[in-house]
Amino acid sequence: MNFSGKYQVQTQENYEAFMKAVGMPDDVIQKGKDIKGVSEIVQNGKHFKFIITAGSKVIQNEFTLGEECEMEFMTGEKIKAVVQQEGDNKLVTTFKGIKSVTEFNGDTVTSVSLHSQLGGPSTWGWVGRWVVGGQGRHEEQ
Q1: pTM, whole model, 2 decimals?
Q2: What are the Cytosolic fatty-acid binding proteins domain coordinates in residue numbering (predicted)?
Q3: The 3-state secondary structure of the chain, one letter per residue
């Protein structure tokens, strides 16, 4: 499966509590809570480029599956991570005590981040839909 495409957030759960727990400033959380961000993914074999746009904030990360890379975290901090592919449709990584699982099914992407050391709501999840051209995703044959 090729993961390339643009996905727009449709719904999310526990955004405010999760962002606060990972150190995002309150003013940034308030500005971002209602933004329907867009994630653009460009895949070339095992190499990926993620461009995440939420309002005026743009984060761009690149990685190769199975190799350590440096990424920008949502707080602006640089982190080291390794992204793995599980099965045909999941990308999984762990960093700073957070496990992130992103699953692709047709034109829907579901992402869940679980923080193992947080009290209270320790997950943040969002569901997005493929938006380029509105035609839906097509798996590689």
Answers
A1: 0.81
A2: 5-22
A3: CCCCEEEEEEEEECHHHHHHHCCCCHHHHHHHCCCCCEEEEEEECCEEEEEEEECCEEEEEEEECCCEEEEECCCCCEEEEEEEEECCCEEEEEECCEEEEEEEECCEEEEEEEECCCCCCCEEEEEEEECHHHCCCCCCC
